[in-house]
Amino acid sequence: MSHKVSHLILLTILLSACQNIMPSDKGYLYGTAKVIDGDTLRVAGADIRLFGIDAPEVSQTCTRRGVEWSCGEVAKKRMIKLAEGKVVRCNTRGRDSRYRRPVAVCWLGGKELNRMMAAEGLAVIDERYPTDYQKEQAAARKAKRGVWAGEFEQPKDWRKQN
Length: 162
Fold this sequence. Notes:
Elements: H1 3-18, E1 26-32, E2 34-37, E3 40-43, E4 46-50, E5 53-54, E6 62-64, E7 67-69, H2 71-83, E8 87-95, E9 102-108, E10 111-112, H3 113-119, E11 124-125, H4 134-143, H5 155-161
Parallel strand pairs: 4-9
Antiparallel strand pairs: 1-8, 2-3, 3-4, 5-11, 6-7, 8-9, 9-10
Helix pairs in contact: 3-4
């Protein structure tokens, strides 16, 4: 084996190992996504809360035309379809105050997952960051997509009661 090839192999091994290293509060995480729920992914060994959005909890229900539906489960299934087992890149923006998880904007290729969930009405704007996805939420609300198709309790309020 040539000297150049052995260095290339060593460099490849080191770069692969670095994918699992947790960055500081500001940085990138890159790796294969495991979906926890509609606004939480596990990437490179870290549970990541998606910045700016709040999806219904997995056991939360919503109402559409007087009929209950599992909006939290639908949000999780949509995120699974979008990201499960796929390589995502997440730009961290700090940590959440409750669980100290990284909070991040995550992309799959050129598509931003946070924005897609808001646009589909499967997540609402996180009131701590009210300007980031207003346009997407307004369009989902007007088109009656996702939770906007009927009545629902804000996920933060649902969590307080349950």
